[in-house]
Structures are given as C-alpha cells and as structure tokens.
Amino acid sequence: MKQSPRVLTILLTICALLLAVPADAAPAKKKIGFSVYDMQYGFFQDMEKGTKEAAEAAGFDYVLVDQKSSESTMVSATQDLLDQGISALIISPFKPDALGPIVDAAKAKKIPVVIDDIGGGGTDYDVIVISDNEKGGVIAADHIDSVLKQKSSASKKVASISCEPSAVYAARRNTGFEQRIKELGYQVVASLSANSKQEEGYKVAKDILSAHPDVAAIFCGNDPMAVGAAQAVADSGKSGVKDIYIVGFNGDEIALQAIKAGQLGATIQQVPKEMGKMTVDLASTLIKGDKVKYSNPANREVYVPVKLITAADVNALLKK
Amino acid sequence: MIDPVLPVKRANQLRTVRPVKTDQPVTHEVRPVRRAIRNLDWDLLWEKFGIATILVVVWILAAIGTPRFAIPDNLSSVLRQSAFVGVASVGMTIAIIAGTFDLSVGSAQALSAWTAVTIAPHIGVLPAFIAAVAVGGIVGLLNGALVVLVRIPAFIATLGTMFLVSGLTFILTNGQTARFNGKDFVWWGNGLMGNIPVPFILFLFCAAIGAFTLHRTSFGRYVFTIGSNVKAAHVAGVPVNRTIFLVFVVVGLFTGLGAALLGSRLYSAGPGLEPGFELNVIATVVLGGTRLAGGRGSMFGTVAAAILFATLSNVLNLNHVDAFVQRVAVGLVLLLALSVEGVRQRLVERWNRSQRPGS
User: Fold this and answer.
1) Mind listing the pLDDT tens digit for each residue in B78-118?
2) How many structural domains comprise chain B?
C-alpha cells in the first residue's frame, strides 16, 4: 500500500481531467426518459410499450431505465436518466417514498416529472396518471345491474370486497361501486377488506355467503380477491356467474381464465398501454410549457379510462 | 470456499508443452529486457493496481464511446453511486482478508438505514448517523459472538442473522417505508463539495481508515496472519478469537455508516432496501483483488472495484442496455476479472518455475 497514495493522486487527476471535458452539443431531438418499475411484469411491459410508441410517434427520442424492483436502483438509474439531458421524466415508481431525491434533482434541472401509477410519495411532481378507479366501480355497478335485471329471481342485495385500506387509489373502486349501486336501488349488505389477497377474498366471501345466502352479486377491488370469491361461491355449490354474479378489477390473466371457464362474471380492465400513452401526451404538454388539464386538480391527477371485460371479450385478450 | 489455486495446479501438471517456448525461442537480445522486467514485481503490481488500471481504461473508453459519460453531472453520479456499496465493502475487505465473510450486511443495512431515517427528525442528524452505525455494530457483535463463542461457521451464522435481522426489520417497520427529507440530513447522501459528492468523500475517508487499520496496526497484521493460515496464527500467539470478533464488529460499523448514507440519499428507508446488497458487496471486494480464501487483498483495489461497478451500470444505462442484459454484463465482468486472476496465478507459477534453474 506504500505506493497507493501516488496512484490515487494520478487517478484523481484523471478524474479531474475528465470532469473538465465540456458537455457535448445539445441533441437535435428532445428526449423523453421513462423509468419503469420492473419489466418482469406484464402490466409494466404493456405500459412501457404504450409509452415508447407514443414517444416515438410524437417525434421524441425515447430512453428507458429499469428499477428492477429496488428503491436504490430506482434512484440511481433515474439519476442516470436525468443526467442524459432529457426534456421530461416519466416514472412508475417502485417505492413512491423514495421519489424525493428524484423529483428534487429533476426540479433542479427544470425537468418536468410525470408519474405513471403507483403513487406520488407526497413529492412536488407535475402530474400523476392513474386508472379511473372510481369510474371503474361505477361501470361495474351498471354492468351488475343490467345482468341482474335479466334474472327475475335475483335479490336486491350485493356485497363489496376492497383492497387493504392503505391502497388509497384502489379504495376508490369500491367507493364508486357502492355509491352507484345504491343509486340503482340495491342494498350493500357487506363491505369488507380482503387485503388484495386471493385467500382472504375466499374467506371473506365465505363469511358473506353464510351471513347473506341470498346475495345476488359481489364486486371485488382486484382480480385475485375476485377469483378467491368465485372459488368460495363454487365451493358452496353455486355459480359465480349464474347464481351470484362476481366482478373483479385489473384484467389479470387469472381473472380472464376464470371468466373463460365460467367461474367469474366480469372484470374491469386497467389499460397500462393507454396510461403510457397518456404520460407522453402530458410530458409533451409540460415540455411546451402549457397547462395540464387535471381530472383532480387538488392532487394533480389525470385519469385514464378503464374497460369492462366479459366472457365475450376474453378469448381475444387471452390470444395475445 | 473453493480454493482457486487447486484447479490451476492440476492444469499445470497436465500440461506438457510450454507455449511460451514453442512460439518464441529465447534469444540473446531479449535477455536484458527480461532482466529489467524481472526486477519489477509484476505480480504485486497487478494485485495492487490491476483493477485500478482497468478502471482508468474503462473510463477513457466510456468517455470516448458514450457521449454523455464525461460530463460533470454524470461523473458525480457515478462516484456517488460507488459510495453506498463502497463503504460497506471497506469492512468486508477486512473480513475477507481475515478469511471470513458476512452475509448479513444487506439486512443490517436496511435496519440501520431505517433507524437513521426514523430518528433523524427527532434527535438530529449526527445522533441519527451514530445510531445507524451503532445498529450495524450490534449486528456485528451478534455475528462475532455466534462465530467466536458459539463456534458456528461464518457462512451459517451470518446467514442466520441475515434472516433474523431482516425479519426484525419487517416487524419493526410494519413493512412500511420511513421518509425524511430534512435538508441537513439529505445533504450527506446528495450533497456536493465542489464537484465531488459528499458520500464519495466519506467513502475515500473510510477506505483510508481501513487501509491504515490493515497496514499500520497490530490488528491489521493479525487479520493478514489469520487469513493466511489460521493454525499458524494460533501457534504464533495471535489472538485469533478476539481479532475475528472485532472483524465482525468492524464490518457492522462500516455497514451502518453506508446504510445511513443510503437512507439520506433516498430520503427514505424501509425493509428490503436493496435486494442482493450483500452479494454486491462481496463481488466488489473480490473484483478488487482480495482473495476469497483470505490472507491477501487491498483496500485500494476495493475502492477501484466499487467505482468500476458503478461505472459499468451507469455506462450500460447511458447506452440504453436492457435490464436483463445488464445482469448478464455484470456477471460476465466478474467472471472475466476472476479468470484474469486465475490466468495470472498460472503465469506467476510458471514464471517462478522457469526462474528456479537459472538463478
């Protein structure tokens, strides 16, 4: 180690020389950077596809980094994006709580920040794009109403199963559903949380069935809980379509399979590709310096529409 | 751990023809040059500065090949990023030289960082950093006690504490991430002094302390002796148990400091802060030229390796390399570096054998 200080000096001198190299000329095209949650998941692959296609269609250069489900990588990789001279940052954060340094660094460079789903972590982002969760609940209520009207024997009793209370955006699905279904003249006999989990959805549905055997429909805040509820209904010798109509939320593969198999009535599909497209539209608005039209100005939210998926649609979706 | 020397030895025994002699016969003109080269200790030079040389080459290539690499903002980011794994690698270098290692640094990091972020708003920044370092030290004490007093092999003992501490962190945090963005606090992870990131300066400072400890204290001499041959160390009267115990505490202390810096960098910390952190740390130390078998290694190599890993991930990001390809690249670099090490050892052996009859 005797010689190491000298070599350290040489190394630092080289660093200093490199630091002195001036920045390269400004690129001709404006660049949009997208920092994705994790490309292992289909939801984010679709989101990335939508983002990339929209960015390229709008004439932007497009660069992607992957957070690989790590908050440390989320910050370092996004920092790499910010250092590349991007004109806007789109990010679907793995941990919204660690957005602080990213948003601060972006603001220091005057780069607008568009958040795609998950959450804003209480930071000073420009806009957050989320699925229209409340509208999704309303669509589910209208759909359940139209299905039940065709059955003369159906009761006016329905149940609502929600995600964990800390998932604020998901909670809006059940709020929207419950409000609308009451307006349509139904009674919500049970409104319970199953913490987003399939096995808890099963348990909660069993409890609902024993307390209210005449319940006509169940709305679930996500698909795993809906599939769990459908299993509970099937275990009690009934059908999740004909006897007790069950509707989920997300458009997950398991739900599509269950709909195809006739165990589940419908699901409300989130459209990550559309969300990606929306983030690029907003980024380009912000780059131009125009004002964003928020769906909910208080929280700087913009909503992306969701879709109803029934047995008629699943075959086309499962083929993809 | 597998001794890398054994397969090399076997390969040498199997080889009958020496390629050096077959393609180039030794002539009289070459001899003086050879003698001059012989006077230099290439083996030692490579061990100490090999990875630093590679780092410099990589930086030059990156500066030429990647347009936005050599700009101050980006270089700051690279150096900053090297610090978080780097500080923990300082402790791990000492542990690996002593012939042991610690798998619990990832869990200890999450708990320490969470501690710092949680208490910093209430008791101030400096006490929060001290608390984080102390938490790391306590995990180190536990590891040391398990290895030295209970005599559990380091691999199993630290694997156990890894699960224990990470479970404990999940219970304490309730799975939630703590958040704090106080200016004094986040400066330690995000600040700059001139153009140099604060955490990187602290990393160099830690490495200097580590190098001093290894080369200028009796503790450091014991670490090398134990790592080379633990039985001989016993016979020579080296306090093996006390030293190994201290090594684990030292690993914990550095891990705690690195964790507090990361918490400051992220404005937040929670359970599962950085998946695979312990392996990144061990990979950094090994890439830096420290022998996994113990007894040899250098803090300078660890510093260079930490910067090299940070550079690699930055350059791959700048060139928009797919995340999965990035994993492959990191794996390849590690394997390549260790292959170079293996080839080097073989060359050194051959060189030594060819020297013997002449001198």
Assistant:
1) 999 999 999 999 999 999 999 999 999 999 999 999 999 99
2) 1
Q: How far is A7 from chain B (nearest CA, A)?
A: 8
Question: Which residue, B129, B244, B246, B144, is CA-closest to B187?
Answer: B129
Residue B128 maps to a domain? yes
Share of chain A above pLDDT 70, in %: 91
Contact state of B273 with A75 under an 8 Å Cβ cutoff: no
Radius of gyration over alpha carbons of chain B, in Å?
22
- Contact between chains at B68 and A8 (C-beta distance less than 8 A): no
This complex has an ipTM of 0.79
Q: What tokens does A47 get?
A: 């989101």
Q: What is the 3-state secondary structure (H, E, C) of A138-191?
A: HHHHHHHHHHHHCCCCCCCEEEEEECCCCCHHHHHHHHHHHHHHHHCCCEEEEE
What is the torsion angle, in degrees rounded to the nearest 10, for the CA atoms of residue A45, residue A48, residue A50 and residue A52? -140
CATH number belonging to domain A133-270: 3.40.50.2300
Residue B176 has a CB neighbour count (10 Å cut-off) of 13
The length of chain B in residues reads: 359
Find the domain containing B48 and state its range.
41-320
Residue B150 located in a structural domain: yes
* Residue B337, domain member (yes or no): no
Tens of pLDDT, residue by residue over A147-202, are 999 887 788 999 999 988 778 888 999 999 999 999 999 999 999 999 888 999 99
In chain B, which residue's Cα lies nearest the Cα of A10?
B56
The answer as to whether B28 is a domain residue is: no
CA pair distance A64, A54, nearest whole angstrom: 13
Considering the domain delimited by A27-125+273-304, tell me its CATH architecture: 3-Layer(aba) Sandwich (3.40)
The amino acid at residue B279 is: L
Distance separating alpha carbons of residues A1 and B343, to the nearest angstrom: 24
